[in-house]
Write a structure and sequence with these properties.
Blueprint: H1 2-7, E1 13-17, H2 28-33, E2 37-41, H3 45-57
Parallel strand pairs: 1-2
Length: 77
């Protein structure tokens, strides 16, 4: 969460899935002043486990892959 908030561009958004791990959001003051939206909700894991778990166990789905896009650093380049 802290990394996501620190790399979000001003006016950007950070989403989380699942229950919060702490009562406060790290870096909430910089997020506030940079107008970064933070939102999220519970993950309905049980709704998909019967369908997806066999694919994970057979190696057809890699659950560790989260990021699927590479962006240029701030300022272009």
């Amino acid at each position: 969460m802290l990394t996501a908030l620190n790399i979000a561009r001003p006016g950007g958004a950070v989403g989380r899935v699942g229950g919060p791990q702490t009562e406060t959001i790290p870096a909430s003051r910089p997020a506030f002043y940079n107008n970064v939206t933070v939102s999220g909700g519970p993950a309905p894991v049980r709704a998909y486990i019967d369908e997806l778990l066999p694919d994970v166990l057979d190696g057809r789905i890699e659950p560790g892959r989260v990021f699927d896009r590479v962006l240029a650093p701030r300022g272009g380049a």
